[in-house]
Write a structure and sequence with these properties.
The chain is an alpha/beta fold. The protein is 21% helix and 30% strand. The chain contains four helices and ten strands; from the N terminus they run βββαβαβαββαβββ. The strands form two sheets. Strands 6-5-4-7-8-10-9 form a seven-stranded mixed β-sheet, with helices on both faces.
């Protein structure tokens, strides 16, 4: 059974010599609870906050175990690694930055996580599908104010990447309205925290 004990995320910043700033966050639940993830500072990386992650994975607690997941705009990898920590079967991480992918691979090595793969891949509506499987759970947390949510949702449908009972997590800027998702997706949970709206949709019945 998955651990339901949750500790608070700790997010800190430090300098390593003359290198770029490196950020450190902690996994908040599951087998790697309190283990640290490090990632190099980049403007487009905006890790999901501890409060939102705690809420999201409370929502996902009945569903996360043995799920095959996609972290489509992976960034820090916080969502994908949190899913693995809590019992997900496999996570595919995708990001357009080779530096981000390298950091994700290093974190996977640190955690001895073998049930993950990594794709350096730039999303667009015309982008070919680089994934060899369907997904039970997808995390969509792209950079804000770039109009990526709606086309990413449709891209998942167009490429038949979702299982019949898939869950899809969306994180957007608060002012993004309306939120456009495929008609077959049904809202399951929704909340606002600060300047962030976050949602959980289901493709099939829960």
């Amino acid at each position: 059974m998955l651990s339901q004990v949750v500790s608070k995320l700790s997010l800190s910043t430090y300098n390593v010599g003359m290198q770029k700033k490196t950020h450190v966050l902690r996994i908040i639940g599951g087998q790697w609870r309190r283990r640290k993830l490090a990632f190099t500072e980049q403007a487009e990386i905006r890790p999901t906050t501890d409060f939102i992650r705690e809420t999201l994975f409370n929502w996902l607690a009945p569903f996360i175990e043995d799920r095959t997941c996609l972290d489509l705009f992976a960034g820090s990898g916080a969502l994908g690694f949190e899913a693995l920590s809590r019992g997900a079967k496999h996570v595919s991480f995708a990001d357009s930055s080779s530096h981000v992918i390298q950091s994700l691979q290093q974190n996977a090595t640190t955690l001895a996580a073998t049930n993950a793969d990594f794709h350096c891949w730039n999303f667009s509506v015309a982008a070919p599908n680089p994934f060899a499987r369907k997904f039970d759970l997808v995390f969509l947390d792209p950079p804000f104010k770039q109009g990526l949510i709606a086309p990413a949702c449709q891209w998942l449908e167009d490429n038949n990447l979702l299982t019949d009972d898939a869950l899809i997590y969306l994180e957007t800027e608060r002012r993004l309205k309306p939120l456009i998702v495929p008609e077959s997706w049904k809202p399951y949970r929704q909340k606002t925290s600060g300047q962030v709206n976050y949602y959980l949709y289901s493709k099939g019945p829960l």
